[in-house]
Amino acid sequence: MDKNYWITKEPINPGDCIDKVVRNEAGAVNTFMGTVREFTKGKRTLFLEYQAYVPMAEKKLEQIGDEIKEKWGNAEIAIVHRIGRLEITDIAVAIAVSTPHRADAFDASRYAIERIKEMVPIWKKEHWEDGEKWLGDQKENISYEAKIPSKEEMRDD
Amino acid sequence: MDKNYWITKEPINPGDCIDKVVRNEAGAVNTFMGTVREFTKGKRTLFLEYQAYVPMAEKKLEQIGDEIKEKWGNAEIAIVHRIGRLEITDIAVAIAVSTPHRADAFDASRYAIERIKEMVPIWKKEHWEDGEKWLGDQKENISYEAKIPSKEEMRDD
Fold this sequence. Notes:
The structure is a homodimer of 157-residue chains. Chain A contains four helices and nine strands. Chain A is an alpha+beta fold and 157 residues long. Chain A has one domain: Alpha-Beta Complex (Aldehyde Oxidoreductase, domain 3), CATH 3.90.1170. In chain A, a hairpin with a 2-residue loop joins strand 8 and strand 9. In chain A, helix 2 packs antiparallel against helix 3. The longest helix of chain A has 19 residues. Chain A starts with a strand and ends with a helix. At the A-B interface, helix 1, strand 2, strand 3 and helix 3 of A face helix 1, strand 2, strand 3 and helix 3 of B.
């Protein structure tokens, strides 16, 4: 993968992100991974399904990287988000940020995951034992119960 | 490696730490890596040398893990620190923390690196173009210029 911001259908190897940000000027690398948790508020998840509008999602991930470089100066960033069916413990998203000093690496990595959940067009379908539901934006402020993402929004090519 | 807290002479693969903490109950994994930076305050580092009192260092890393479990409850932790000669960009330390939710993973990972630098008996020798120096505790509050760690303190078996 020659990009620093990408969507994939394959299992995520966090080392792919880490390798892209390790460099002579960095003394600190922070990596955040979101993994599929079995229980949420007492309800058992069987598996998740993610869909994205891929070109826009990759563009938005890159925008988040640019925001971080703007805010923290000397930072390098790589972000990958997986789509398709994910099983419990699978990595859905991995972020790696390198900076000269550690405080910035932590802060920028945290910023990245909050921004991803706010603004990247990736939809999640929860599959439980007793049903399933499309969730809207990942902060769950918008519900997609009424409005399932359109085929156009979900296309992953 | 069957331990969650260990000292190694081999290159660190952060995936080894990540694999130890990924689990059904976790929705978040934070990984912090300290890497060898080329320039510090304008001075070029050629390479670093780390020595540790290994049994005590591993015991202290485990203590930090216990402190995190106490403070954050549902957390799993793995920490590895490398010793010996490290080149620029090599990983000196890797920490992985998994928790159900992301705020705790970030906070606990940050706590771990601060505690490592405070209390784990690992000594660092900086090699510059124009000299070398043993540094004391990793927060550099204690200087080892007068007192180079004894052979007993530095033994790495």
